[in-house]
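Hey, quick one: can you model this chain's 3D structure?
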Amino acid sequence: MLVSIGPILGQNASASLYSRVRQAVKQSLWISVVYVCVVWLLFDVFWQPVATLFSAEALAAELIQFYAQYMVSGFIFVGMLIIAVAGFNNLHMPNTATLFNLARIFLGVVPAVYLLGGEFGAKGILASETVAVVVWGSAAYALFWSRLNKVAYRARLILENEAVVDNPSELEFSSGVSQLGAAISRQSER
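Sure thing. Here's the predicted structure for all 190 residues.
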């Protein structure tokens, strides 16, 4: 569902409609939060039938209950990470997108598994993914939002002043050239 955010961001940015870009980002996060909360509630209510379906006994049933009651909430931050990664890719920052995904795994999950797994056993291992995605999903979303505001501000200045930019990638959205098209053509008409 959230993977479709990339083309929406790119299309609206190429039209210099940054208010729509911001709106799409906010609405995507809202959809993610609502969806995860509904699934979380359902899974919390129906974890026992799920455990029965898999013939889970003792520890396995306890882990299913733990996951249903606490870990599902972490998918809100997975949504934040997906939105941010799509945005970074549209900002010509694919390396940043990749780094956040790798950081979540190697700087988030792996150390958390080592620390929490040793201290809390299987529950700690399950919690490691949530801890990692909360940290790295929040960081990625915050950085993306900051970069989006910077790009929108720079694009607005360029378009308001009808300036010609030597390097269209300065706007950083994947369609930076088309964003400047209107300003450049207006200037050449003079």
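One thing worth noting: The chain has a mean pLDDT of 85.
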